[in-house]
Amino acid sequence: MDQWALINKLVLIFFIALNFVYKETVDIPWAVFLLLTYFCLNICLHLLKQRYQVGLLLLSIALSIIGSVNVSPLFMLLLPLSFVELTNVWTKQKVIPFLLAVIPVAYVDQSIQAVYVLVAIYTFLTYTMGRFYHLRLMKNEDQLDAMRITQQKLMKQINDNDAFMKQSAYMFKLEERNRISQEIHDDIGHSIAGALIQMEAAKRMMSLNPEKAKELLQNAIGITQEGIDSIRFTLKNMKPTTEQVGVNRLKLSIDEFITKHDKHTALTCKGNMDRITHIQWKVIHDNVTEALTNSLKYAERSTQIAIDVNVLNKLIRVEVKDNGNGAVKVEKGLGIIGMEERTAAIDGKIIIDGTDGFSVTTLLPIQH
């Protein structure tokens, strides 16, 4: 805003100075002195605090009038912008500053009345436009500041949620450990302690009462067997199924891919996922990750990627397909060669197709 006003004043000062050069009747030293004084006042106007603005503007107006009376009528051309600035300090109306800037035309020398009106219109329009864009810029900056504050709050919430999730996961692990240790202590520990007591008693009675000792040993065997069964039951409940580990790990990788890249990626699973072994899940995960990376590098125009895991009667079919332009001739790089090698290691096969988009299909045999 200040730059617009200063530029306008410099233009007017330059215009007046040029006119003085071609008029021999003007007292050049006084004209230069008044112009420099006017310029210094307006520099101070934009450097000092707002409470001094009215006084400096009134001095500028007085200086313009003094210069017009004693040196040249052209000094009146400096009045419109000072009037516009002064009235904008008191009111936000757009018409009043223009009217106050035009009113002095009745007291201006007739030789410059037309120029005065043009200057008044020019200064009003440029000042108003500058003020409009200045307010708009300030509004945009306020919005940006508000968005930055909101972003900082959201980032803090994300970090807090992440920390809470990590703490919750850690607490869950601690609670699970405590539950398992308590269960082992209550069930298995008591069983083993009881079996140990029975065997100690059988040892002492072996020479005195073999039948009783045999009975005690049989009881100890039964108690130990119950303890072993309890251990197996606990471990079976703790251990997740192959399907849960494989599918969840694949979903996690896809979710990480979605958060990092702007591509719609969907996973569909069909059939009995329990028939996929751990080693097959490892190969599937590595091949899907490599296929996603290749799609990101070479299928630039693709917007979505479909991942389909289908367990059939005799084989497992995993397809990663995008909707890009595809490729007429597929050149095998290190990524595709690596997929073929690890798939062939477990008697599988890789099929590459670039006719309709680009797809990588992994075929693995069902292991009985």
Short description:
By secondary structure, the chain is of the alpha+beta class.
Largest sheet: 5 strands, mixed
Q: Strand order across the biggest sheet?
A: 1-2-3-5-4
Average predicted local confidence, pLDDT: 78
From N to C, what is the helix and strand string? HHHHHHHHEHEEHEE
If helices are DSSP runs of H or I spanning 4 or more residues, what is the number of helices?
10
Termini Cα gap: 81 Å
Report the helical percentage: 55-70%
How many separate domains make up the residues?
A: 3
Low-pLDDT runs of 5+ residues are none
In oligomeric terms, what are we looking at? single chain
Which outline best applies?
elongated
- What structural category arises from helix and sheet content? alpha+beta
- What is the CA-based Rg, rounded? 44 Å
Q: How many extended strands?
A: 5
Approximately what portion of the residues adopt beta-strand conformation?
5-15%
Catalytic activity: ATP + protein L-histidine = ADP + protein N-phospho-L-histidine
Domain Signal transduction histidine kinase subgroup 3 dimerisation and phosphoacceptor: 176-242
Organism: Virgibacillus phasianinus
Pfam family, one: HisKA_3
